[in-house]
Amino acid sequence: xxxxxxxxxxKTRIRCWKLTTTQRxxxxxxxxxxxxxxxxILETDIRAACHPQWTYDxxxxxxxxxxxxxxxxxxxxxxxxxxxxxxxxxxxHRLKYFVSRWNCLDFFVVCAxxxxxxxxxxxxxxxxYLRMFRITRLTRAFRIVLSIRELYMLxxxxxxxxxxxxxxxxxxFMMLIIWSIVLxxxxxxxxxxxxxxxxxxxxxxxxxxxxDSFLTLFQTIIAGDSWGLISLPVIEAEPLLAIVLMAIVIxxxxxxxNLILAVIVESAAEAxxxxxxEKAKQKMKEQLTTKTELLRICAAIDKDFSGTLTQDExxxxxxxxxxxxxxxMVLEVRxxxxxxxxxxxxxxxxxxxxxxxxxxQVYDLKTSDIRMALAMNRLSLSTAxxxxxxxxxxxxxEIQEQFNAYRSSLPMPADRKQ
Length: 418
Hints:
It is a multi-pass membrane protein. By secondary structure, the chain is mainly alpha-helical. The protein has helices at 11-20, 23-48, 69-93, 101-122, 127-135, 141-146, 149-160, 162-186, 188-191, 210-222, 227-237, 241-301, 311-320, 322-330, 335-345, 355-367, 370-409, 414-417; strands spanning 308-310, 352-354. The chain contains 18 helices and two strands. Strands 1-2 form a two-stranded antiparallel sheet.
């Protein structure tokens, strides 16, 4: 839509846009995604029955989902539904469709679905790999999750913390590698001579190499599993190693991990502050969409294509045009308010107002802060009253001066002369 209100979208395109932006459409797609999740769970359980007998020849498994024809048909139908949705969005937004990350994800999901079907029939590839492409459909469920405020905050906090989590993982990896080297040098000679029996088959080789030592530290320090099973016998055999093992616990568990947790919490807090700004931008975008829709409706009710509206056209549109009345009610403008807005804009008194100015005025009434508006009106009235009083006093003084001058110019009566 241009600034003058002339539409550049076809009616079909506008209808498709309205359809895909309704809450009902989003709810229907949410049901479809949830049904797709149930179907994937069912497919996974069916495929699990093929192991271990058919692990290396999963396509020959008589219990696989290939033997259940309705699952294949439902998957094709779901892919068709996703294709129609993505095609509708692409028809409405054209190349701007790819500006949104969610739209790019939907497009990738559709392409991955077709690839999984074609590759499954033409290429000899592991079915589990193809199944991963179907699982990408479930990423659309995040849209449903984002509609819930609490879950939205958790997901945005997690997403904003991924950078901190990554670098924190790098820090932990480096610290565990360094301590693994130390343990191989000092703890392995002691640990190799200990007899753990059948209670812990791996304990005797827990520090025999850097990778084994790394796994032992990850199990005992990071995962918190059976620290005393291997550490206490080593400490009892060589008490000085208690300093090294305690230093590992303090530096990794109490130091690095808590520091990483603090950074993650701080990142989530920053994300929440940024979310407030994003909410404001989203609200402004929604209001602008409503304003654009009102501009399109005004262009439609402008029967003479003059770019202006009369008061009669507005009243007629309120009674006969349901869209115009709905948008006005959304903007909290009543029928009686139309006359007031019209007279404000019709400064020259020609009985016509530009409908772009009309939309701007209605939009300002909706978005402006009532308290601020009242304060500004009170200030304007006070200023106008003061200026009016100054003008009246000035005019009164000029009149008094002219009256005194006129009075002094009159001839004096004879008795007053004597």
